[in-house]
Design a protein that fits this description.
Belongs to the ABC transporter superfamily. By secondary structure, this protein is α+β, with helices and mostly antiparallel strands. The chain has 2 domains: 237 residues, P-loop containing nucleotide triphosphate hydrolases (Rossmann fold, 3-Layer(aba) Sandwich); 113 residues, Nucleic acid-binding proteins (OB fold (Dihydrolipoamide Acetyltransferase, E2P)), CATH 2.40.50. 24% of the residues lie in helices and 34% in strands. The protein is built from 9 helices and 23 strands. The strands form 6 sheets. The chain has a 6-stranded mixed β-sheet with strand order 6-7-8-3-9-10, with helices on both faces. A hairpin with a 2-residue loop joins strand 12 and strand 13. Helix 3 runs parallel beside helix 5. The protein is globular and about 75 Å long. The N and C termini lie far apart (49 Å).
Length: 368
C-alpha cells in the first residue's frame, strides 16, 4: 500500500499550453492516505480519468510530481509502480478459463501454487463465479467478463494501489450493489489504497472513505460523504451530490440577511460584503412548505411521490426550487411559501462557499 502525493500536478494534451484553459487537469496538491478508499466523482470530461491515468503511469503529467510514499514515480511505468488497474470495459484473455484469468497476475509473479489456488477461489466466490472457474472466458456476457476483470484486479495482495475506472458500467444494477459491498469489505480486510472513478454519486458515496469531486479539471472538494452533503465547498458539489441537488438562489448578502428578488431571508451567520456573483444554497431536505406571510413566495409546479418521500417542484422569481416533503403529507390549503432552516443555508460567491464572520444564535430547527 502507499500514500499518494499529488505535488503541483497539472496536465495538458496540447504540446504548448499557454493558459489555464489549455489544461485538462488544473493544478492539484493533495495527499491521499495510505490504505484509504477514495472516489473521483464528476461529470464526463471533468478530468477524473486523466488524473487516474497519471496516477497509474499511463500518462506523464505536463507539470508536477506523483509520489508513492516518499518515492517520486512521475516517470515510472505502471509495472514499476506496482499497481493494479480495472478499466471501464473488460480486458481479459478469451482463450483462458475464468480460473486461469484470475490466476494470471499471481502466476506471472511466481507465487506458490497452493496460495494461487486459495486466492483464486476466494476472489471467484467474491464475484460470484466460483462455479465457472473451468469455463473458457470466450462466449461469456460482457457482465461476466467485467466481473473477471474486477477479480483479476483485486487478486494481488501486494500492490501499492488498486485503481478502478468506472468498472461497473456494464454490470446489472443488482450486481452493482453486491460488488460495491464486496469491494468495501475487501478494502476493510486487506487495507489496499483504492481509487475509484465514477460519475455515479451512489457508487462514490457508498464505496469511498473520502470523495474527490471534480469539475472543469479541478478537485473542488475532497471530503467524506457527510462533509459533501452538509457543507458543499462549491456550488457544483451542492448540485451534483444529492437528489435533487442543492437549491441555489441569486442573492444580495449583507450581515446576517440575504435579499432574494426583494424578499429577505435570515441567515445562520453574519457575512462581510461580497463581490461577484452571490448565491445562497440550501438542500431540499431543509426546506419546508407553509402558508402565510413568512418565507419566499413560490408557484408550485408539481409534487412527485418517489416512495420514501415526496419532491415538491416549485418556482421562485423564475428560479426552480425543490423541497423534500414527508411521504403522504398533504399540501396545506393556501400553502405558497417556502421556509429555510437558516443554520443550513450556505453563502456562495463566484461558486465558492464563503465562511461567515460568526454564527447567529438560532434554535436548532428554526426556519425562516
Amino acid at each position: 500500500m502507499a500514500k499518494i502525493t499529488l505535488d503541483n500536478l497539472a496536465h495538458s494534451y496540447l504540446p504548448n499550453p499557454k493558459g489555464e484553459a489549455d489544461y485538462a487537469l488544473k493544478q492539484l496538491d493533495h495527499v491521499w492516505g495510505d490504505g484509504e478508499a477514495y472516489a473521483l466523482l464528476g461529470a464526463s470530461g471533468c478530468g477524473k480519468s486523466t488524473l487516474l491515468n497519471i496516477i497509474s503511469g499511463l500518462l506523464v503529467p505536463s507539470r508536477g510530481r506523483i509520489l508513492f510514499g516518499d518515492r517520486d514515480v512521475t516517470r515510472d511505468d505502471t509495472v514499476a509502480r506496482n499497481i493494479a488497474q480495472v478499466f471501464q470495459f473488460p480486458v481479459i484473455y478469451d482463450t483462458m478459463t475464468v480460473g486461469d484469468n484470475l490466476a494470471f497476475p499471481l502466476r506471472n509473479r511466481g507465487m506458490d501454487a497452493a496460495y494461487i489456488a486459495a486466492r483464486v477461489q476466494e476472489i471467484a466466490t467474491m464475484i460470484g463465479m466460483e462455479h465457472m472457474l473451468r469455463r473458457k472466458a470466450r462466449g461469456l456476457t460482457a457482465d461476466a467478463k467485467q466481473k473477471i476483470s474486477l477479480g483479476r484486479g483485486m487478486v494481488r495482495e501486494d500492490v501499492n494501489a488498486i485503481l478502478f475506472d468506472e468498472p461497473l458500467t456494464v454490470i446489472d444494477p443488482h450486481m452493482k450493489w453486491e460488488l460495491r459491498s464486496q469491494l468495501k469489505a475487501l478494502h476493510k480486510q486487506f487495507g489496499h489504497t483504492m481509487i475509484y472513478v465514477t460519475h455515479d454519486q451512489t457508487e462514490a458515496l457508498t464505496f469511498a472513505d473520502k470523495v474527490a469531486v471534480m469539475h472543469d479539471g479541478r478537485v473542488v472538494q475532497l471530503g467524506t460523504p457527510e462533509e459533501l452533503f452538509e457543507r458543499p465547498a462549491h456550488t457544483f458539489v451542492g448540485y451534483f451530490i444529492g437528489s435533487p441537488g442543492m437549491n441555489l438562489i441569486e442573492a444580495e448578502v449583507s450581515g446576517n440577511t440575504a435579499r432574494c428578488a426583494g424578499h429577505v431571508v435570515p441567515l445562520g451567520g453574519s457575512y462581510k460584503p461580497l463581490k461577484g456573483r452571490v448565491q445562497i444554497g440550501i438542500r431540499p431536505e431543509f426546506v419546508t412548505l407553509a402558508a402565510g406571510d413568512d418565507g419566499l413566495p413560490v408557484t408550485i409546479r408539481r409534487i412527485e411521490d418517489v416512495g420514501r418521500h415526496q419532491i415538491l417542484r416549485a418556482e421562485f422569481a423564475g428560479n426552480p426550487v425543490n423541497a423534500i416533503l414527508p411521504e403522504g403529507m398533504p399540501v396545506p390549503a393556501g400553502a405558497n411559501r417556502l421556509k429555510f432552516r437558516r443554520e443550513r443555508i450556505g453563502v456562495y460567491a463566484d461558486d465558492w462557499r464563503v465562511a461567515p464572520l460568526h454564527a447567529v444564535s438560532t434554535p436548532a430547527r428554526e426556519a425562516v
